[in-house]
Design a protein that fits this description.
The complex is a heterodimer of chains A (363) and B (314). Chain A has helices at residues 45-53, 95-105, 110-123, 139-152, 169-186, 197-203, 221-226, 231-236, and strands at residues 7-16, 19-29, 34-38, 60-65, 68-69, 80-83, 157-161, 189-194, 206-211, 214-219, 243-252, 255-260, 263-266, 281-286, 291-293, 302-311, 315-322, 325-332, 342-347, 353-356. Chain A is an alpha+beta fold and 363 residues long. Chain A is elongated, with a radius of gyration of 25 Å. Chain B has 14 helices and no strands. Chain B has helices at 2-10, 36-63, 67-71, 85-93, 104-134, 140-152, 155-169, 175-200, 203-211, 216-224, 229-245, 248-253, 261-269, 278-309. The two termini of chain B are 39 Å apart. Classes of the chains: A alpha+beta (363), B mainly alpha (314). Chain A binds chain B through residues 50, 53-55, 74-76, 80-82, 84-92, 101-102, 105-106, 133-135, 146, 149, 153, 161, and chain B through 202, 204-205, 207-214, 218, 222-223, 226-227, 310-314.
Chain lengths: 363, 314
């Protein structure tokens, strides 16, 4: 266990009856780090957050916060503040009372309460709202108050449980920026649960991608995006999803190539080239923006036909038919193609991923 | 704005702008006042209302007549001479057994039974429901099942054992005994009611309070209670009417001088000696039914207001 870690999770398991939700989970979160737990619903990410908060008891394993074993501690004694998806503001209390509830429960002197409420409301710019009830606030204002409630408690670790999922798209991106700014100025450790990969990629120092109670990959966003450790991560991150071609590695000339449906792709530029062995069944993954249309960088070219065009403003998304596969390609929004047009594709293999077909791990 | 100017120009500048220039249906669809559907709906409502109001009318009218007028037999006729004597007699001087102080004694007995029973049962059941909904303690499921089964066992089965238990404790026949019985028998349905209500409150609110450091009672008193006015009103209506209208427990577990109003009403109405005083009986019955009626009217309004006040979207 890393004693410098802000939050450290050791061999944590959690079972609900016969259902195992978290399995032998280990995770060290550095001081001041913004860690995002990302996964689809039911992957155990919120459960893990609730365990860290102390709202759920671990079946096995330990949780350390600031080097202290808090596995059996009450939520209030863990030095955490939590922000919930539904805001969870106390409806009968004013914003001010909402912010100060925890402090009043802890019998903090009134002068200190006033000071901290004033500071939090200044940081979040909610001073004009202090006398209002939650029902009189908009969604974005409510979530700000909810963040403020964690802020006044002066905690080491902030826990966010899908805080932006109830907001509309515009507010969501605004508050996302604000949370990032908050983290930059407070420099607290923050653990943030979301199913939204954009939130994860934009906010995180590191992302932990979870599936069935297991962390699939823990890395910074760039690594997660460019070098996914396995097929699940590769398919989960990125929209539209990475193109996957099932095929085989073969000898071609003096090098190794990937072949699928009788079409060969040279892999000389692939960064794990030396690990590739001919005869292996593999899956080739290429992101839509790593395929060039009618722009040859010098490598081989493949014929394809435009099937569907989806203009998305800045980008233009093409769905192409290529040797029996359907492939998505992202190009500049200014470049338009007619359906049925014949085009030449070239693949940027330096940014592609090759996965073993059986273990589904990246080679 | 630009559109308006353009339209004005088209209409020749000064001519007033005409609405709905395109012919055809516009605005709200006209609905006929008399249609097949309306006749059925209003007809059914009217018949049902009359069906329930006629007995009430007969009761009120009869209670305001003197006995000679009642003997004429026109039960639907309005009173020729209004008299409040039957009401006074029903309340203050009608005889049941040895006592001749009317329903007033029963009324006060019922108040002394109902108020503590309602308060005690709601207080305990709300905490029960809160604990079952939010604090999943060991054996909570089992406890809940036992409680639910309790709600399905007919009361009559338990009367004799309870009589023995109360006798052994030494409170048989006292108001305390009856209050305890009412509180216990209200427990299953009230606990279920409160549990379901607290389960319906957002769980994250409870979690947030725990992170804020509030304990079992602080969360209950400061977070949950202020949000639960509607369900408390519902529980109160249920309990007040249920306990006030109870006859079985009243007659079994009390003595003549502690009889609740319902039992005393029965004794007045069913007394076999002398002439049947229909006007007194009617007045006594209305008096007894007045309390649940008032509760419905007063708290029904509170109930609606409670729901409106609690309507905070998550």
């Amino acid at each position: 266990m890393n004693m410098n870690a802000s939050v450290s999770i050791k061999d944590l398991s959690l079972n609900f009856g016969a259902v195992s939700v978290l399995k032998d989970l280990n995770l060290d979160i550095n001081d001041g780090e913004f860690l995002v737990l990302l996964g689809s619903s039911g992957c155990g990410k919120s459960t893990l957050l609730n365990c860290i908060a102390g709202l759920l008891d671990a079946s096995e394993g330990q949780i350390f916060i600031k080097g202290k074993n808090v596995t059996w501690e009450e939520p209030k004694d863990r030095g955490i503040g939590m922000v919930f998806q539904s805001y969870a503001l106390y409806p009968q209390m004013t914003v001010e009372k909402n912010l100060s509830f925890g402090l009043r429960v802890a019998k903090v002197p009134q002068a200190e309460i006033d000071k901290r409420v004033a500071r939090a409301s200044e940081i979040l710019q909610i001073q004009p709202l202090l006398k209002r009830k939650p029902a009189e606030l908009s969604g974005g204002q409510r979530q700000r108050v909810a963040i403020g409630r964690a802020l006044v408690r002066d905690v080491d670790v902030f826990l966010f449980d899908e805080p932006l999922s109830n907001l509309d798209a515009k507010l969501r991106s605004e508050l996302r920026v604000e949370i990032k700014r908050l983290h930059q100025s407070l420099k607290n450790t923050m653990i943030y649960v979301t199913h939204d990969q954009i939130e994860a990629l934009t906010l995180a120092d590191r992302i932990a991608i979870m599936k069935s109670g297991i962390i699939q990959q823990l890395d910074d966003p760039t690594t997660i995006y460019n070098k996914p450790r396995n097929l699940f991560v590769a398919g989960f991150i990125g929209s539209p999803s990475m193109n996957f071609l099932r095929g085989e590695l073969v000898k071609s000339g003096d090098g190794i190539a990937f072949t699928a449906n009788g079409v060969n792709f040279s892999l000389a530029a692939y960064d794990g080239y030396e690990k590739l062995q001919p005869g292996r069944k593999v899956v080739l993954g290429v992101r839509p923006e790593h395929i060039k249309v009618n722009e040859n960088a010098g490598g081989e070219e493949h014929d394809a036909t435009v099937d569907i065009e989806e203009p998305m403003g800045a980008d233009n998304l093409l769905w192409l038919k290529h040797a029996g596969h359907t492939m998505s390609v992202r190009i500049n929004g200014a470049r338009r193609f007619n359906v049925g047009a014949k085009v030449k594709l070239s693949f940027d293999m330096a940014l592609a991923s090759v996965f073993d077909a059986e273990s589904e791990l990246r080679l | 704005m630009a559109d308006n100017i353009a339209l004005k120009a088209v209409n020749g500048g000064d001519t007033p702008f005409e609405k709905a220039t395109v012919s055809g249906p516009a605005g709200p669809k006209p609905r006929p006042v008399v249609s097949g559907r309306n006749i059925i709906v209003y007809g059914t409502l009217f018949v049902a209302a009359v069906y329930y109001l006629i007995p009430l009318y007969v009761m009120v009218v009869t209670s305001l007549k003197g006995m000679p007028e009642i003997r004429l037999g026109n039960i639907f006729a309005p009173p020729m001479e209004i008299t409040f004597e039957p009401w006074v007699k029903a309340w203050a001087t009608a005889c049941t057994g040895l006592n001749c102080d009317g329903l007033s004694r029963g009324f006060w007995n019922s108040v002394r039974i109902t108020v503590p029973s309602v308060v005690v049962s709601i207080a305990i059941a709300s905490v029960n429901g809160y604990a079952l909904a939010n604090w999943r303690f060991k054996g909570s499921e089992f406890f809940f099942s036992v409680l639910i089964i309790g709600a399905f066992i007919p009361y009559q089965v338990m009367i004799y054992p309870i009589v023995i238990i109360l006798r052994e404790i030494g409170i048989y026949g006292s108001l305390t005994g009856l209050i305890i019985v009412h509180s216990i028998f209200g427990m299953p349905i009230l606990t279920l009611l409160f549990r379901n209500y607290f389960v319906s409150l957002p769980e994250e609110l409870f979690k947030a309070a725990r992170v804020d450091g509030a304990g079992f009672w602080q969360i209950f008193l400061q977070i949950m209670l202020p949000m639960s006015l509607p369900i408390f009103v519902v529980a109160m209506i249920l309990q007040v009417t249920g306990i006030w209208n109870d006859f079985l427990f009243g007659v079994v577990f009390t003595r003549p001088d502690t009889y609740p109003m319902t039992v005393q009403l029965n004794n007045i109405v069913n007394s076999v000696q002398g002439v049947k005083e229909y006007n007194v009986n009617m007045a006594a019955t209305i008096l007894t039914g007045l309390v649940p009626l008032v509760v419905y009217f007063v708290s029904g309004r509170l109930f609606v207001r409670g729901i409106a006040a609690g309507a905070v979207k998550g």
